[in-house]
Amino acid sequence: MDKNKQGAVPRHVAIIMDGNNRWAKKRLLPGVAGHKAGVDAVRAVIEVCAESGVEVLTLFAFSSENWQRPAEEVGALMELFLGALRREAKRLLDNDISLRIIGDRSRFHPELQAAMRDAELLTAGNRRFTLQIAANYGGQWDIAQAAQRLAREVQAGHLQPEDITPQLLQGCLATGDLPLPDLCIRTGGEHRISNFLLWQFAYSELYFSDLYWPDFKHEAMRKALADFATRQRRFGKTSEQVEAEARS
Question: pLDDT at residue 2 above 60?
Answer without folding.
Answer: no
